[in-house]
Amino acid sequence: MTDARVLTGGCVCGQLTFKAQGAPRRVGLCHCMNCRKTSGSAFNAFAVFPADQVVVSGESRAWKTDYFCPQCGSQVFCREDAHEIELKLGAFDQTNLFTPTYEAWTKRREFWLCTPDLISYPENRGEVTS
């Protein structure tokens, strides 16, 4: 790891953590059924880093290429190959670190994700912003 910028993250219980150094290669969204089902959301948001820029600590379990904490069940990362690691944007300790530049599997994308007039809830429902 050579870049001075170190980003941290991990699971909700804190047992499985990571440190990522430098900038990601790419940041995207995926709407495929695997990402939808494993995340429990309408899509998966991720930042892809070179594997040698990321250090993972703690115990993890895998289902196919998705890795999660065996204690709390939080998904933290994905390993498609030995050269890259896909870190879930929601697993970072900070918010607003990255903006996706692309999305995959748009044929599975929810139609409402491209609707510009959505009501926005910054936290809980009832706190509406325009």
From TrEMBL:
<keyword id="KW-0862">Zinc</keyword>
<comment type="similarity">
    <text>Belongs to the Gfa family.</text>
</comment>
<dbReference type="InterPro" id="IPR011057">
    <property type="entry name" value="Mss4-like_sf"/>
</dbReference>
<keyword id="KW-0456">Lyase</keyword>
<feature type="domain" description="CENP-V/GFA">
    <location>
        <begin position="7"/>
        <end position="103"/>
    </location>
</feature>
<dbReference type="GO" id="GO:0046872">
    <property type="term" value="F:metal ion binding"/>
</dbReference>
<dbReference type="InterPro" id="IPR006913">
    <property type="entry name" value="CENP-V/GFA"/>
</dbReference>
<dbReference type="Pfam" id="PF04828">
    <property type="entry name" value="GFA"/>
</dbReference>
<keyword id="KW-0479">Metal-binding</keyword>
<dbReference type="GO" id="GO:0016846">
    <property type="term" value="F:carbon-sulfur lyase activity"/>
</dbReference>
<protein>
    <submittedName>
        <fullName>Uncharacterized conserved protein</fullName>
    </submittedName>
</protein>
